């Protein structure tokens, strides 16, 4: 899998979980301590996230990091 494809799939996974929890981008970004544009770029796969950033997102979504990374 190419890096850009992986980034896109992770972003889609974040979007999927966030919308299931009825959270807006603004809500989740605020919970993580970021600007909404940062989360927008992550969800669009335009950012190569560190494991720590993914950990913060998973924590705020109240899921495990492994659940967040459960992509196919």
Shape: globular
End-to-end gap: 11 Å
Percent strand equals under 5%
Tally of DSSP β-strands: 0
The helix/strand order is: HHHHH
Main β-sheet: number of strands, strand sense, barrel status? Answer: none
Mean pLDDT: 96
Q: Estimate the helix proportion, in percent.
A: 55-70%
Gyration radius over CA: 11 Å
Would you tell me the structural class of the helices and strands? mainly alpha
Specify the number of helices: 5
Low-pLDDT stretches = none
Notes on the structure:
The longest helix has 18 residues, at 3-20. This protein is mostly helical and 72 residues long. The N and C termini lie close together (11 Å). It is built from five helices and no strands. Helix content is 67%, strand content 0%.
Notable features of this structure?
0% strand, 67% helix, 72 residues
Topology of this structure?
Elements lengths: L2 H18 L4 H8 L3 H8 L7 H10 L4 H4 L4
Helix pairs in contact: 2-3
Brief characterization of the structure:
With 72 residues, the protein is mostly helical. Helix content is 67%, strand content 0%. It has helices spanning 3-20, 25-32, 36-43, 51-60, 65-68.
């Amino acid at each position: 899998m190419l890096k850009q494809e992986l980034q896109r799939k992770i972003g889609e996974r974040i979007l999927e979980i966030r919308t299931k929890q009825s959270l807006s981008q603004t809500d989740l970004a605020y919970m993580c301590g970021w600007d909404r544009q940062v989360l927008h770029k992550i969800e669009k796969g335009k950012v190569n996230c560190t494991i720590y950033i993914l950990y913060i997102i998973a924590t705020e979504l109240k899921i495990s990091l492994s659940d967040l990374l459960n992509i196919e």
